[in-house]
């Protein structure tokens, strides 16, 4: 069964605490927080103070996805804010190894993220040091986009390396995930599914979380 990480990008910001409690009660393992800088991606969302504000109101694993150009400088602020996992996009830095070191030295789980157009080859040199790899299944920047099926082969490729080398990182997928698209990703080796609009643009988010789990039994 896949672990579920609802993305609060699609939540109701005015009633955020309620929306977080809903997915917590429904058994979601992570809370996915999308940080967008208006440069690496066109949109701007929220920063470290947002994570700091959420930290005391939930025990959920805070899974912070940085869509931020040159993230090195801002990493300490997210570490201090109480993130449990911090993901950096390999395309956003010339120093991916250093960025992951900063996260790990801060006592936080380190994640590397690859866009749909980025080959798995790009992250091979850092796979020994990560706790999670995020394979983007849409181009980052917006919720509610259509799943890109060509990304499934990359999940399988990554999973093969994981098995061969005996690594134990989680493989997360993000973008266009629903109870249908999650199935092939799970079969290919995905262990964590981010879902924004599928969970939050529904009358009953709990039912949607359950459907993702049922589809990957
Ligand atoms: C996209 C973000 C996602 C987004 C997913 O750039 O990284 O986490 O919230 O939204 P859905 O699940 O609606 O595609
Ligand atoms: Zn995300």
UniProtKB/TrEMBL annotation:
Role this protein plays: Catalyzes the reversible epimerization of D-ribulose 5-phosphate to D-xylulose 5-phosphate.
Catalysed reactions listed for this entry: D-ribulose 5-phosphate = D-xylulose 5-phosphate
Annotated binding of a divalent metal cation, by residue: 32, 34, 65, 174
Pathway where it operates: Carbohydrate degradation
Gene3D superfamilies with a match to the protein in the record: Aldolase class I
Family: Belongs to the ribulose-phosphate 3-epimerase family.
Organism: Limosilactobacillus alvi
Assigned keywords, A-Z: Carbohydrate metabolism, Isomerase, Metal-binding
Annotated catalytic residues: 34 (proton acceptor), 174 (proton donor)
Name of the molecule in the record: Ribulose-phosphate 3-epimerase
One MF term in the entry's GO annotations: D-ribulose-phosphate 3-epimerase activity
Gene: rpe
Cofactor note: Binds 1 divalent metal cation per subunit.
Cofactor(s) needed: Fe(2+); Co(2+); Zn(2+); Mn(2+)
Binding site for substrate: 7, 65, 141-144, 174-176, 196-197
Family annotation (Pfam families): Ribul_P_3_epim (PF00834)
EC number, as in UniProt: 5.1.3.1
